[in-house]
Amino acid sequence: MTWLVWRQHRQQALAAVVALLAVALFLVPTGRQMRAAFDDLGLGTCLRATPQTELVTADTGCLPLSEEFSGRFQSLGLVSLLLLFLPALVGLFWGAPLVARELEHGTHRLVWTQGATRLRWATVKLGLVGGGVALVAAAYTLLVGWWIAPLNDATGYRFTWLFFDQQGPVLVGYALFALALGVLAGTLTGKVLPAMAVTLGGFLATRVAVALLLRPRFLPPLRRAYPVVGATPTESNPLIGDWVISRGVYSAQGVKLTPGSGAQALCDQTAAARCIAEYGVGAYNQDLFQPADRFWLFQGIETALFVALAVVLVLVAIHLIRRRTA
Amino acid sequence: MSDQATPAVLEATGLGKRYRRTWALRDCTLALPQGRIAALVGPNGAGKTTLLHLAVGLLAPTAGSIRVLGRAPGKDPDLLARVGFVAQDAPLYGDFTAADLLRLGVGLNRRFDLALARDRLGRLGVPLDRRVDRLSGGQRAQVALAMALAKRPEVLLLDEPVASLDPLARREFLQALMGSVAEQGLTVVLSSHLLADLERVCDYLIVLQAARVQVLGPVDELLDRHKLLVGPRRDPAGIAGVAAVVRATHTARQSTLLVRTDGPVRDPALTVADVTLEDLVLAYLADPSAGALPGPAAAPAPNRLEVQA
Q1: Partner residue facing A325 (CB), from B60, B87, B111
Q2: B1 located within any domain
Q3: Model pTM score
Q4: Could you tell me if A121 and A111 are in contact, meaning their C-beta atoms sit under 8 angstroms apart?
Q5: Chain A residues touching B147 at Cβ < 8 A
Q6: What residue numbers bound the domain in which B18 lies?
Q7: Does B34 touch chain A if contact means CB atoms closer than 8 Å?
Q8: According to a count of CB atoms within 10 Å of the terminal CB, is the N or C end of chain B lower?
Q9: What are phi and psi of B230, to 5 degrees?
């Protein structure tokens, strides 16, 4: 049985290794470049030497160096957004055909009428393929973790949308979820292409829903206020790595004055009069944020969530495989 | 009847399978004795594949029950190990070699006679190291059959095994099959929409039409009990010894009747001739309503009970 799984999936395994190497071919040189720049700019030294406080004066400390680093490598961060789709590929090319191709070619009638129950066939197959996927995803996670470390430190973006989504153990969760979704879609549709379409749609919808709706609420966000007007106005220090979910200017009575969730006002003495005229005396900026030290907790919660979803989908798929007729 | 002495290998009682609103198989009651080679015959869509899939557990019955070797198929690995099955078109993994497929058989079956399968394919000249999607249809069918036989099954179910083969390959396939059946002493059900494919090898007949069993019984008994009567044109009713007229054709002066008998026909005006199995099947298939049933095999059991009481 183990041999059968290997025989049927060795090409996919090979493709995965090749893909991993191809990604490494992009990540290793650019990663070395980032590390070099991180040291050459003195950003590493600066970050180690400067204690990072919650509030900082704009354009002081390591912030200018950070800006320079970001300016140089932000485009790289954008390219790496493509990597966000890697787990979906697992669902499309490993998950969807796993059962659907058997049903499409009628080979389930061969393999389900040998001397092993469908339950055994399904558990061994899904166990081994799932293990393989987890292994590849873990290897990729380590690689991308090494690659993205200077970007994390230099920008403090690690916890924010899209950066959170392309590193850490969540990647293993996403990959397993995509696999399970593909398997279930294939079992339901019995055809490879429709199963792929369902998998892609379902994966993206779930990922977006979790990232936008659930993740900000895993734990209640914290609140941080800082004045609009000051001798040397201070703002939240982005390098700490907090995830600011919403930000706005509030009146002294606590009424939100700015629309949306990104605005802040910082006025030194020269602009004080104008700011007071606009926002009133005692106005303050307020951040709702998830503190940086919750990063791994949130990674853990989201990983567990996707692994749990994967388990549920796989159980449903196995149930359907056992019940499925002809 | 000698059939009742051995236990039924394949036994269906009121078996039915419905897909949404259409019945693919209905009220199917039959008992196939051990050691028989049964031809499962009927037009396309008559329910042959449905019956075989029910027998091998790929389908679950909507009504009634089916037992194979005394057990309910499906989810029973012990039973799966004792049943050899080749689905229609002999589905195989196209990118596997025959050797790969045999290894699959070894891996998925507690009992798998690898040597038997290798010998068999070697004798038939089927290359073991070539991808099966590069083999001919006949060779693929042989690979599928070799896999099924290597399980050393007690029952062998083959769904349209020769449909995709040319006449020569058909003959070779059936010869090879018969050789193994004789060696292994198993019970076989072969389906086909053409009786001619199977006529020479089968000794038991199941005719399905429009989802129902129409004719059922050992071939020799069926042939014994059906006669072709030819005589001057006449009303087919009321001939002594005739239980039912399956088909009557008339010309201006002559009547030809294919009848099921329940005793000797001694009408001097009629010539009594034996029927061929093909005539018999065609006669039943031509008239679905007339068929009635299996006269031969279904009735005996209650009669015997009465006698014993």
Answers
A1: B60
A2: no
A3: 0.90
A4: yes
A5: 110
A6: 8-210
A7: no
A8: C
A9: -125, 130
